[in-house]
Amino acid sequence: MKMKAQAAMEYLMTYGWAILIVVIVVAALYAMGVFTASPSVACSPCFSNFAYVDYAAGNLLVRNGPQSIDTITIAAVPDTGANATITPTSATSGDMLNITGVDATGDVEITLTYTVTSSGLTHTDSATVHN
Length: 131
Fold this sequence. Notes:
This protein is of the alpha+beta class. The chain has 2 domains: 1-37; 50-130, Immunoglobulin-like, CATH 2.60.40. 23% of the residues lie in helices and 37% in strands. The protein is elongated, with a radius of gyration of 25 Å. The termini are far apart.
């Protein structure tokens, strides 16, 4: 009878520690915000050639990708009423671009049209900004 009790205790201790470790890992993931439903960035999906940096009060800051670009134009749907603008209108790799006037109520679809300097080809890139 003593052997069965010892086997039962070893079984409970082994699985008890395993369950405790799983609980600690889930608590740590929850504390890091892995399970939050709200987006941590203002745009989703963000641009493919531009990296999201920051967003506040209708101003979106993005970083240019690996290519030098020129003749950047912007369109916002719905029209924000403040006429969305982007500065500067040309950028080299890693430059910051400031998009202003995207403070409409609700989601705003922003479309950037630009020309790659090295090839001369025109591209279009879109993102949805959540207000």
